[in-house]
Amino acid sequence: MVDLADPAAVLIHYLARAHEGLLAKLDGLSERELRMPRTPTGTNLLGIVKHCTNTEWTYLGASVGRTFGGEHLLVPVESYDSDPQADWYATAGESAAATVALYRRVGVATEQTLRELPLDTVGRVAHWPAERAEATLHHLAVRVIDDTSRHAGHADILRELHDGATGLTPAAPNLPEGYDWAAYVARLTALAEGA
Predict the structure, then answer these.
(1) The whole model's pTM is what?
(2) Domain count for the chain
(3) Cα gap 165→73, rounded to integer Å
(4) Which of 12, 63, 103, 155 could pair covalently with 123 via S-S, beta carbons 3.0-4.6 A apart?
């Protein structure tokens, strides 16, 4: 049970939930399935994890002067000059297992940051405009939780479109059991067509 009187514990809890929800969408899929672009802009499940890894460390690690020893595994800042999508796909040399392991490693490091630094610690986000580049750790953590949750939602949809897998996680599906989804979709389609 999270201690709601402890703001850092609340942030850690919700960031961990976002991690869990995102990673659950990768379960049981092959390297090919994880890498396959699922949208016209190339969004893919493994790329979402890679993006969340780099984003999380940028805001909850590098911006507040932390290190975790794996920075060399992240997308170098200069890579974005030649490929603005550099953190949205795994390269041929980056396996799904290694990408997920790095995400988990960053998660441990950012949890340590949230436990060890006061939430009013001021960080500096290198890629933000100079006049607004400073933000508190609390602000940055909320931003990361928001970003990760948004992308976990993208992963929900990509996975459902791929193989019909739905729900928050396998242990907590949060959808009605035995529901007639075909009839539900037909009802919604009729409503849409009648609009």
Answers:
(1) 0.93
(2) 1
(3) 31
(4) 63
The boundaries of the domain holding residue 148 are: 7-193
Residue 31 belongs to domain with CATH number? 1.20.120.450
- Note whether residue 2 is domain-resident: no
Spatial separation of the C-alpha atoms in residues 60 and 57, rounded to whole Å:
5
d(CA 15, CA 41): 26
3-state secondary structure at position 123: strand
Asked whether the beta carbons of 77 and 128 are under 8 A apart, the reply is no
How large is the greatest C-alpha to C-alpha distance in the chain, in angstroms? 58
Q: CA 132 to CA 27: how far, in whole Å?
A: 39
In a domain, 1, yes or no: no
Rg (CA), the chain: 19
Question: 102-139 burial string, b = 16+ CB within 10 Å, else e?
Answer: bbebbbebbbebbeebeeebebebeeeeeeeeebebbb
